[in-house]
Amino acid sequence: MEMKTRVAGDVNILEISGRFDTNTVPPVAAWLEQVTSAPKSRVLVNLAETTFVDSTALATLVQGLKRCQQVQGDLCVCSLRRPVYMIFELTRLDKAFNIFVDEEHALQSLKS
Amino acid sequence: MSLQHPEVIRLDLPARYAYLHILSDCIADMLRQIDGVEDHEMLTYNMQLAAHEACTNIVGHAYDGAQNGDERIIISLSLFPQPRRLEIELHDTGKPFNPEVVPAPSLEQAQIHGYGLFLMRNLMDTVTYTSQTGDNYWCLVKNL
Lengths: 112, 144
Hints:
The structure holds two protein chains of two kinds. Chain A is α/β, with parallel strands linked by helices. Chain A has helices spanning 25-35, 55-70, 82-90, 93-96, 103-111, and strands spanning 2-8, 11-20, 42-46, 50-53, 74-78, 98-100.
């Protein structure tokens, strides 16, 4: 797994490549904890290059979302591959997260 | 390729998260042997995820607190031609587990725990678990 972070305006963006699972979650969880501590934190997790997401990774994203909501911020995800999107649907997390087809649409929503 | 005989892969992995990608690779390679599957990409992903969740349960719960460092997961992947199905068997020697007492996650609200067993049960046709002294056994079956 490789993670890249950057900032666009006031949105913290995380790109995850490869497997996002129990083995690779710790640096993502640490980053999310750090960026979601600020008031009105806006976070975008780009999963375009994420090939595998397990239940621990889902839980990590849910934790990030809840932390964002506590500080009146938001966490969105974008560019999910089809099998990953199906797992969001199966767990109904597609209802909990704002999911966008690509980064452009996600940023439009987060910045508005 | 149409399968004439059962195809079997056996793995004996250290019970560590770092090695679980090997299991995913084997499942993908095994399922590449068959044709006539409606959605190969989804099937492969779902089988990889179900098997991975069983393994993370073993590492995180059965072997939680284990000190030896030589804990293993013994895995058998079998692709049967008639009726065509994938069977994933896993053995561990850790603490036994009672899947019946694990509550299903509330799907009305996002959860931080509890999706692992839910995913296994929803992605496979049957999921069974038995525990005898020193041998815990998961069997996951998907009809193809």
